[in-house]
Structure formats: structure tokens, C-alpha cells
Amino acid sequence: MRDDLHNALLKSGAVIDGASALPLHFGAPKAELHAALNVCTVADRSPLARLIGDGPDLADLLNRLSTNTVDALEPGHGTATVLTTSKGRIVERLFVTHLGDAGLLLVGGTGRAAAVLEHVNKFTFAEQTGLRDCGDDYGLLALGGPLAREALITLGFGTPSPLGAVDEMHDGTRVHVLGHDGYSADGFSVLVPNGQAGSLWQAMVLAVSKTDGRPAGELALEVARLRRGIPASGSELNEDHNPLEAGLWDAVAFDKGCYVGQEVVARLNTYDKVSRRLVGLRIPEVQLVVAGTTKLYRDEKDAGVVTSVAGLEGAETVAIGYVKTRIADIGDSVHLGAVDGPIVTLHAFPMKD
Q1: Could you tell me the CATH superfamily of domain 50-133?
Q2: Taking the model in full, what pTM does it have?
């Protein structure tokens, strides 16, 4: 049934990446970036992990494995939380939404469903969770940008609370409208059965066009993500980092009971031991930057590392990375790639034009 969405994307002018099968762009990457930052976009977010479970013990188990309060969620409500290791490091950031009789929905990073299942199953003994990867059953289509709410209303759908959900109907089938776009609570997404994903895509494209928005591909969306300073699984969110230095403070409940890694995360906060933070960088032209290996230096000291970099032809290249706050912080200048490399300034988010 994924073929229906694929065909709909092609009809919208998508140029598909052969390796990932994702739309790279829809013919105008710079215009897509402008829409993502200033107007409205519709995007295929189906590669994000989607898991669902309706077992009676799932909420309690997730509460014991992650940083935020999950077991008190009521139908239609949701929260962001982080699965952590015993050392308080990030396994995965999840958006958890109570879908009523459909169960709990977990949305995580691209291609991370198996890793989330493996981690949860490692701590599952007699618990009945019913947790499964539902990616083969459902697509995830997202609305982003300042006018995303207007596009959702034009579509005829109700507006969920941030991180929450409302049920709507499309082509006679129930869909779940979510109060996040798969990356943050600043947008919306729709969990739709794959058989109806193509027709819903077409309806969302029409709704977005009425706001002067447009479909957007991965090239523009990645630049927009970095401009906004939103961390992503695998690059910023991994076991090298903890939730606080990744800026996921809203996903941590410091007053909840014990969870795996809780003591470490609590100490980081109590004793002000968060030693790194995410920052933005504007990359000089023709400067080669390799995410994950390009180091940052200040006063000949290792100041941090670039974790993601993206740019468009004819547009500025931007990056985000972690810096050690005892060495460098927002507003400081650092050297890129070597102690005598090009000088760049560390920016707060969002990075403005």
C-alpha cells in the first residue's frame, strides 16, 4: 500500500532518492526552505519510527524506562520522553501519545523502531505491552511552518493540543491527528493507514497551497531543522549524550519516581553538571565539514564537534554541534576543523537570516 503514497509524491513532482526512497525535493529546494521557515509545508515523515501497543502494562513500563511521566496520560494527551541507559545517556527520544482504544503510540527517530523494541523488550518480563512496529500499516504525513495550524483547519481537521491527538475521518477511515511533526511540538502530523496515505497526501498538498505553502523534501527540511536547532536521532540524540545537554529539558520530569538512568540525570541538574550544549554554526563557502568528525577549537583547545550539516545550492550552509561550555558558548568564535581553521561564530537558535 506504500505504493499509493509513492505515486502521490511523484504526482506532486517529487525527486526520489534511490537509496532512502525519500523525496529529496519537489523541484524548488530554496522555495521549499522558505516555506518551511516562513509559511507552511507538507512532508512525508513515514521513515520515522512508529510503534503502537495496547497492553495493560505498557504505560507503567515506559514510565520506568524513560525520563518523563507517561503512566498518567489520558486519551488524547501526549508527552515527550527519553529512553535512557543506566548512565543517563540517550537511547531514543520518543513522542508518546494516548490514542484511546487504539493504545499508546510511540514516534521516534528515522529507522529506530527495531532499536526501541529491543530496548523495551530487554526490560520486559511478565509485563503485557502489546508493543509492535506499525510502520507497515501506517504512514505519517506532517505539516510544518508558521501557518501549519491554518492548513490543518483548511483540511477540515480538529487541532490537537501540543503533543496530544484528535481522531478524524478521511475517506471513511479513522486517522489520528497528532500535536507534533515527528521532531517537535511546533507542527502537526497525521497517522494514516497506508491505503489512504496517497489520497490524504493530495488533500494536504491542496490545503497547504491555500496558505501559499508547498510540499517539501529532505534537502530543505534538513536545513530548516538545523536553523531551528532541533536535535535528531543518531546525530545529536545518541548514547554519547544525555537529554539535558541535548536541550530536551521539557522531556524530563525531575519530580517523578525512579527510572533507568534517573540518578545520573538528576545529579546533572542538581549540581549544575551539564557541560555541553547544542549551538548553531554558519559554514563559510567551500569549507568541507563532515558531521561527527569535524572538531571545533578555541584557544587551541578542543571545544566541541559538529553533529549535523546541511545546505542548498545557492544558499547558506548551516550546521549544529555540541560545544563544551567551559571552553566556548553562544557568541564566541571558534576555529573549524583545526586549531588554525576558518573562524565561525556560535549561534543561538533559531538561526536568523
Answers
A1: Aminomethyltransferase beta-barrel domains (3.30.70.1400)
A2: 0.97
